[in-house]
Amino acid sequence: MKIRGAETVFGVNTVIQSIFSLLTPPALGALLSWILCAKFSVGSWIYALLISLGVLIGLISMIKFILSAAEAQKALREAQKAAGENDREEN
């Protein structure tokens, strides 16, 4: 039962972190665009440029995170499997 609980928590954490990785760069791009327009009178085209760049960076960041989380999940399962085999050998 503890193993499934750990996998569930790991899965929920992965989903939340993936969403955060995807949404943060476009939000920062929008904030930076607003500051540039307000302080330096840059045209509104900067919104499209920086938000688009943020979406691209966010997608790349999310994909990298998901791939690393998948490898960590695999390592966790292998460690749990090895721990289970060690418990059986001791009994």
Number of strands: 0
> What is the SS-derived class?
mainly alpha
Q: In percent terms, what proportion of residues is strand?
A: under 5%
Round the Cα radius of gyration to an integer and report it.
21 Å
Low-confidence stretches: none
Helix content: over 70%
Q: In total, how many domains does the architecture comprise? A: 1
Q: Summarize the helix and strand pattern as letters.
A: HH
Distance between the termini: 20 Å
Biggest sheet architecture: none
> What is the subunit organization of this protein?
single chain
Mean pLDDT: 89
**Given the structure, what is the number of helices?**
2
Question: Could you describe the 3D structure shown?
Answer:
The chain is mainly α and 91 residues long. It has one domain. Helices cover 93% and strands 0% of the residues. The protein is built from two helices and no strands. Helix 1 packs antiparallel against helix 2.
Provide key terms for this protein.
single chain; 91 residues; mainly alpha; rod-shaped
